[in-house]
Amino acid sequence: MPAHQLAPDITDDPARILAAEREHLATSRAALRAMREHARSLSSDAAGDWVSQQILQALLDQRVEALADHSGTPLFFGRLDRQAGDDLPGTVYVGRRHVHDDSSRPLVIDWRAPVSRAFYQASPSDPMRVALRRRFGYRGGDLTAYEDERLDQGGAALAQSRILTEEIERPRSGPMRDIVATIQPDQDEIVRSDLGRTVCVQGAPGTGKTAVGLHRAAYLLFTHRERLARSGVMIVGPNRAFLSYISSVLPALGEVKVDQTTAAGILGDHSAPEDPAVSTVKGDARIVPVLGRALWMHVVKPTEGVLFTKGINRYRVADHEVREIVAALRGTTRYGPGRATLAQRLAHLVLVRMEQRGESPDDRVQDAVARSKPVRQLVDLVWPKLTPQQVLHRLFSDPAFLAAAAKNDLTAEEQSLLLWAKPAKSFRSAKWSAADGALMDELADMIERTVPLGHLVVDEAQDLSAMQLRALGRRCRTGSATVLGDLAQGTTPWSARSWTEVLTHLGFEDGAVTELTLGFRVPREVLDYAARLLPSVAPDLAAPRSLRPGAGSLSVRPAPDLAASLARAAEEALAREGSIGVIVPDASVSAVSEALSHLEHRVLSPDTVDDHRLLVIPASLAKGLEYDHVIVAEPADIVDAEPRGLARLYVVLTRAVTSLTVLHSRPLPAQLG
């Protein structure tokens, strides 16, 4: 009898059960290969034209890629045996994707399917019509163990799952992996939230908030495939190194067509240096009306009308009529469509003059008049064509123009911060900062409407300015968002102090805020040590808790000879299993790399995650990353390097999932005493 037809029988011989489950795994892998070969055999030649053929071929290529069998990744991780008399299939295997045999009989059910929900949510008190839940343990791609949980024998609490614990604690190297086998009930509730609901997750370190956001994207794509295929899903992370770290998660779940980018990737990779005080003013939402006035101040009062000549006939629109049209349009439309509408309304008045003379012009004549030289010249004079760069260049170069646009929204001191000490000769030669990118995006939306997406996942959202949040919100104004972050890990001068503030700037005031405080990855001993900083960085947040005691996971050592201590700690970590991150103040990266020159290692850059076992990591890039063993050098220097240095140190201290070693030649910050 095939494994998928086995009746639940936990009294059977364990070796026999394991052999049957391995047989089912082999059968499922063979079926997946057959599904992929079938997809590969399909041809796009049936399409009616070349364009359709290219589109169909792209879809077929995506299908083939989505059906790839990752040999080191379990195809299924759980099994549900339904209670007798249930109308659903008696036995269901839960895995990363749907797999069926050549008779279309399901061998593995996608974890996102409604029937799979019981794998994550069922309990003895609410078995959800499940008699038995079986978890599978793997080593690489080989099924090595199983563990059964009876759910139909009353309300007794289940024992801690050994397989679940081992999977959570399993050492890793390289990019982040999915958590479909270990999703917890509170995480599952977030993952399966409806598409129309914007969810904000305040997640303490190690609670899996990033993974929850990625898995929600995968769930929504599965549940609303057709709708989101048209409108799109986008993941926004803090930097390219972070995106590289998470890049394997969605493909492992069969989702290969999701854009992953940074705020800079959306707003333009502008990198001109700028005083944080200036960036803070530019990032404040109070600058929005200033930008609006600066744009509309370019629309001037008409002083002349339009004279349109056709053959020997002359048709005039008086200046007062032009002023009435401009006054009616100004501020009631976006700037770009307003220009086009002005031209059409002027052309319409010309057509009225033609009709008054007995002519019968049609829409083609009106369009021709709207494109004519007299109309275009007047429109360009009264309502000039603009780019966001032109508006900002004038705003930051002309004190009088800035003062008129600012009115009472910005103080005189803030205006002086915005003005360039040495203005660029033109907007084309100007050097723009990252904060300017958000202002340009705001202006671009005032000129032409931003095309929205179906769903947006924003990670580390607490570090985004109000203007950056507005820019992201515009991209899902008709959709929804998953907002992820931790207020305690806010490290920018404009970091949010509340999620209500973040949701308001995104345009989702009614978004639901949920908090994840129970950690699964960071050992309790490490998390409790880092939490000593919380009263200083986020006093209103509840202290995080960890399920893993982690006795012996923390070592804090004085290091008079820091270089020698770093080398010794790295050698000790290399003798253990797992990845190693040496996190240091940004200014010390070169010196630390030199101290570790006798050990093979790499230095993490802002643009890439090097898949190497031993990495030297600038403290500013550590956010969102995890390593089995973390070595932190000189906490006091990390704190002193930036205004929110204590928050940065909190981030750094919570990157470890097995052990944390803190080395210091200077006294530790008082909060860690």
Quick description:
The chain is α/β, with parallel strands linked by helices and 673 residues long. Helix 12 (287-296) packs across helix 20 (434-447). The longest helix has 28 residues, at 14-41.
The shape is globular
Poorly predicted tracts of residues: 1-10
Provide a count of the helices. 28
The number of E-state strands comes to 22
* Order of strands across the main sheet: 3-4-2-1-5-6
Integer average pLDDT: 89
The major sheet is characterized as: 6 strands, mixed
Helix content: 40-55%
Structural class: alpha/beta
Q: Please report the distance between the alpha carbons of the first and last residues.
A: 64 Å
Please state the CA-atom Rg, rounded to the nearest Å. 30 Å
Strand content of the residues, in percent? 15-25%
Please provide a written account of the structure:
- The chain has 673 residues and is of the alpha/beta class.
- It has 28 helices and 22 strands.
- The strands form five sheets. Strands 3-4-2-1-5-6 form a six-stranded mixed β-sheet, sandwiched between helices.
- The chain is globular, with a radius of gyration of 30 Å.
- The N and C termini lie far apart (64 Å).
Present the secondary structure layout.
Layout: H1 14-41, H2 50-66, E1 76-82, E2 91-95, E3 99-100, E4 106-110, H3 117-121, E5 130-139, E6 142-150, H4 162-169, H5 185-191, E7 199-203, H6 209-223, H7 225-231, E8 233-237, H8 240-246, H9 249-252, E9 259-262, H10 263-267, H11 276-283, H12 287-296, E10 306-310, E11 313-317, H13 319-329, H14 335-356, H15 363-370, H16 373-382, H17 388-397, H18 399-406, H19 412-418, H20 434-447, E12 455-458, H21 466-474, E13 480-485, H22 499-506, E14 512-516, E15 518-519, H23 524-530, H24 534-537, E16 545-546, E17 554-558, H25 562-574, E18 580-584, H26 589-595, E19 602-603, E20 614-618, E21 627-633, H27 635-640, H28 645-653, E22 656-664
